[in-house]
């Protein structure tokens, strides 16, 4: 009679993708309530002989601190409204911290920080856990948040600018001198960035990248606190500045993989 179910639409879509695009992996992204549907759907495709790799990436439901988003209850925030609110709140923080910045720059910082905070609040969570959405938490400059990571990157750029003004720029030909345990800890941790990204891709868990970046930023701040940069002899200054520069580049690249921008100053 022409009637169809979600499953029949999904089956037809698999057939189309296999024949049209010759795919070797299919990833389906939904919330946790669709798990049974995809178990049944995947079994049907196996019975049809379509043995392409299929992966259901399910995620927990996002909630307010006082309950679940619900269309029927009317407590749903539209994405456009969510992003606008994030930018508005971020602007208030920028205005408080750096009121002397040009207005255009304050607006740009607010957009990058506000949108980044929302993305990171989602992607930094174990996707199979419920997400509690709290503005004060996601916009904090402390803890595992986008603003904390973005500030860590901006702090690196500030130090590099000061080193450059001293005529001691961190160039590629610098010889690293890793005498302190904090220097070695930071340098060693940067070497596992590629494997962290690979594991995140294989498991479809972007929070593994977020966890890595947060740990890296903590190591970077420990390095700052224990290994002065600008008031050192030239060899040590250049070495430490270059180490900080590379850590900043890893933070920038990692955030980029999460769709989040960085700023040279905040």
UniProtKB/TrEMBL annotation:
It comes from the Bacteria. Gene3D superfamilies: HUPs (3.40.50.620), Isoleucyl-tRNA Synthetase, Domain 1 (1.10.730.10). It holds the Pfam family tRNA-synt_1d. GO terms for biological process: arginyl-tRNA aminoacylation. It is an enzyme of class 6 (ligase). GO terms for molecular function: arginine-tRNA ligase activity; ATP binding. Belongs to the class-I aminoacyl-tRNA synthetase family. This is arginine--tRNA ligase. It comes from Fusobacterium necrophorum BL.
């Amino acid at each position: 009679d022409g009637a169809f179910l979600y499953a029949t639409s999904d089956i037809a879509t698999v057939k189309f993708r296999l024949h049209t695009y010759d795919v070797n992996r299919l990833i389906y992204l939904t919330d946790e309530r669709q798990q049974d549907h995809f178990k049944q759907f995947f079994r049907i495709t196996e019975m049809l002989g379509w043995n392409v790799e299929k992966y259901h990436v399910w995620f927990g439901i996002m909630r307010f601190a006082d309950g679940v988003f619900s269309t029927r209850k009317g407590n749903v925030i539209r994405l456009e409204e969510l992003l606008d609110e994030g930018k508005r709140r971020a602007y208030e923080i920028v205005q408080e911290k750096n009121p002397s910045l040009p207005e255009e720059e304050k607006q740009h910082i607010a957009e990058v920080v506000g949108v980044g905070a929302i993305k990171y609040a989602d992607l930094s969570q174990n996707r199979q856990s419920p997400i509690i959405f709290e503005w004060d938490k996601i916009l904090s400059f402390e803890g595992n948040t986008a603003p904390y990571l973005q500030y860590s990157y901006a702090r690196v750029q500030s130090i590099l600018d000061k080193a450059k003004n001293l005529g001691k720029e961190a160039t590629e030909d610098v010889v690293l001198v890793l005498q302190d345990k904090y220097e070695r800890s930071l340098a060693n941790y940067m070497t596992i960035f590629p494997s962290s990204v690979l594991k995140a891709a294989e498991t479809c868990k972007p929070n593994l990248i977020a966890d890595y970046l947060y740990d890296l930023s903590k190591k970077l701040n420990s390095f700052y606190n224990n290994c002065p940069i600008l008031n050192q002899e030239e060899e040590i200054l250049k070495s430490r500045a270059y180490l900080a520069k590379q850590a900043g580049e890893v933070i920038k690249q990692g955030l980029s993989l999460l769709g989040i921008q960085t700023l040279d100053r905040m």
